[in-house]
Amino acid sequence: MGRIKLFENWAFNRNLPEPFAQEIGKTGKKYTTEFECLSRHNHMFKGKRATLHAATLQGIMHAVNILTGKENGAFGVQIQNGDVKRCYLEHERAKNGVSETHLLVYEPASGAWNGMIASGSTLIHYPQIGERGASGSELFTMLLFASITQEIRYDSECEEGFSQFRQQMEQGYPDMEKAMCAAFILCDNFYRRIENAETLKGQGLVFDGGCLQAGNLPFITAAKLKNGEYALTKTYYGNFCVFQEKQTKERPTIRDIAGKYKRNHPLTKAEEELVPALPENYEVSPETLEIVEAVCQTPMRVFMMAGEAGTGKTTSAKMAAQLLGLPYYFFTCGEATDEVDLVSSMIPNTGRRDSVVPAVFPSFQDMKMDPATALERVTGIYEEETKEEEAFQRILKTLYEQGYQCGQKEKDYVLVESSIVTGCRRPSLIEIQEPSVISKPGTLVKLNGLLDDGAAITLTNGEIVHRNPDTVIILTTNMDYRGCKGFNESVLSRMRMILYSEPLTPEEMVARVQKRVGNANQALLEKMAKTVCEIQKYCHNEMIAGGVCGYREYEDWVWAYLIQKDVCKAALHTVIAKASPNKEERDEIYKTQILTKFQEKNETPIMQAA
Fold first, then answer.
1. What are the b/e assignments for 149-179, b being 16+ CB within 10 Å?
2. Are 154 and 189 in contact (CB under 8 A)?
């Protein structure tokens, strides 16, 4: 007896569907020990055999009828962050002449199930599964869908067995021996992959037996259906009637909304050159739209964008400046950035100095012969009867004063204001990059005056600069990376909005990189993108720190492959090299995440002929 309710004794004692019941009647046994009819997942040492299971066979037959159109049904999934979160099945059945739709939801990662029946506009509980109730055959219909779909719990043996089973069923079982063999393999396959899911890992079928402990599947409430929790993102077959596919709204491009948010401030020619000019086919991110909407409709002017490297924070800031028609300034922080750096800096005076006419000094003989004339040559004033000693003292004093004034004009350093201060003087957009890497606590507090509405800041030379009311400030940071520090609470409280950029999904990565590489092998790009996301999860699960693996690494990998024509070698210096600073960890990531997926596929080109 198995560990879940579907494999209790009563389930194996149920009558088999035809023509298998008739065939078993000839032999008198539901099992076989023939090696070719056993699943490769059957690792029993003694008494190795496969047993036909009524619910499994009925579920497989439902799948064939749905895929051939003999029964109404649909298969689909809900994808979240690149992974299949839920699988969906709708299956129309007739009961007492009334049509009703059976609905199932399966979570492949946790093995959780939910179910219900829709009869018209009424939602009722899924039939109780047990000895005197339903067999649970539709659960196997769902598990079959998961097993023959690459993105879920694909198993090649299951796909081959189902293909043979379907061929025999569609043709009316012309070769019953082949049909029986396929039936034994499939029943054994499902039993072993469910019962031994932990040891089979990715090929196993996780099944939460607690969902069926009493035979009742957890109910899908109407509220959850309405609020979009059970929203499809991809339909594989059929048309869903109850589960609604989530309509992914296309992002507008810069061209689509050009001029909609422009502020029309009069700009100088120099300022016009600082307005970004990104390609008009660039898609506008939701974070950018939120910022420009807030700027145009509210007094909000200070924002923060946080997220992984490569998620487009700087591009979003430039895009916001372009949509608003404002000049773009940026200031990049470093570990040693201090309060003075944020507003100004002292740099050597390398500018051209005005030429100074050399002074003509009186000689010692002139001083002795005519002190009054010698004094006149220096001061320009002739004073008769000036004594020699007095003239000498006044000449020295005058020369000292002239030398000091000349030195003041030719000082070695000049005060240069930062781009933050320059941007605050006129309407503009200022991006302050990576403020979280500043090591000295409280450095950003220096900017609190500018972050307040209509506030000001005092420069080193004593000048007070007021922030223009139309100046927008955006802080962009990666707060989860090594070396990043937390923000002072007074700074955070002045952020009018903090927008967290979600990591790009594999689909978004592929769409972005395709705009750069052009005509490409979609399948290989998708596989590379999924691999990068899997490496991210692997590093997180294994607590590998100090590395990075995101969109930039993915794009670099694609470019490197275009040059090297070796997908594994290209990954070494673009993805693996950045994933961890530890050599042993890099080697393990390369073996488990790259070689196992691409070692035999280096001949597949990314670029294809048009």
1. bebbbebebbeebbebbbbbbeeebeeeeeb
2. no
Pick from 461, 351, 353, 348: which is nearest to 412 by CA?
A: 348
Taking residue 441's Cβ as centre, other Cβ atoms within 10 Å add up to: 11
Put the strands of the sheet holding 98-107 in their side by side order: 122-125, 112-119, 98-107, 83-95, 73-80, 234-237
H or E element in which residue 50 lies:
strand 50-51
| Same domain membership, residue 395 and residue 275 | no
State residue 408's pLDDT score.
60
> The tokens of 55 are what?
């619910």
Q: How far apart are CA 34 and CA 27, in angstroms?
A: 14
- How far apart CA 483 and CA 423 sit, in angstroms, is 28
Domain that holds residue 576: 506-598
The C-alpha atoms of residue 193 and residue 305 are separated, in whole angstroms, by: 45
At 510, list the tokens: 């592929």
Average pLDDT over residues 586-609: 72
In terms of domains, do 38 and 185 share one?
yes
DSSP H helical ranges for 413-505:
419-425, 448-451, 489-492
Same domain for 181 and 287? no
Tokens of 529: 């993108």
In this structure, the answer to whether residues 290 and 335 fall within a common structural domain is: yes
Amino acid identity, position 142: M
Give CA torsion, residues 366, 372, 377, 380, to 10 deg.
180
CB 284 within 8 A of CB 323: yes
Q: Is 442 in contact with 436 (CB distance < 8 Å)?
A: no
**Of 2-6, 287-291, 533-537, where does mean pLDDT reach its minimum?**
2-6
- pLDDT tens digit sequence for 57-100: 999 999 999 998 898 999 999 887 667 888 999 998 877 778 88
Instruction: Give a yes or no: residue 258 inside a domain.
Output: no
- pLDDT tens sequence across 377-424: 777 777 777 777 787 788 777 777 777 666 666 556 666 788 888 888
Task: Give the domain-ending residue among 237, 260, 281.
Answer: 237
State whether residue 256 is helix, strand or coil. coil
DSSP-based helix, strand, coil % in the chain, nearest 5: 45, 15, 40
If asked whether residues 187 and 313 sit together in one domain, one would say: no
User: 104 with 89: CB under 8 angstroms?
Assistant: yes
For residues 314 and 478, give the distance between their C-alpha atoms in angstroms, rounded to a whole number: 12
Residues 280, 257 contacting (CB under 8 angstroms): no
Helix (H/G/I), strand (E/B), else coil: 325: coil
CA distance 78 to 230: 8
- Cβ proximity of 503 and 550 under 8 Å: yes
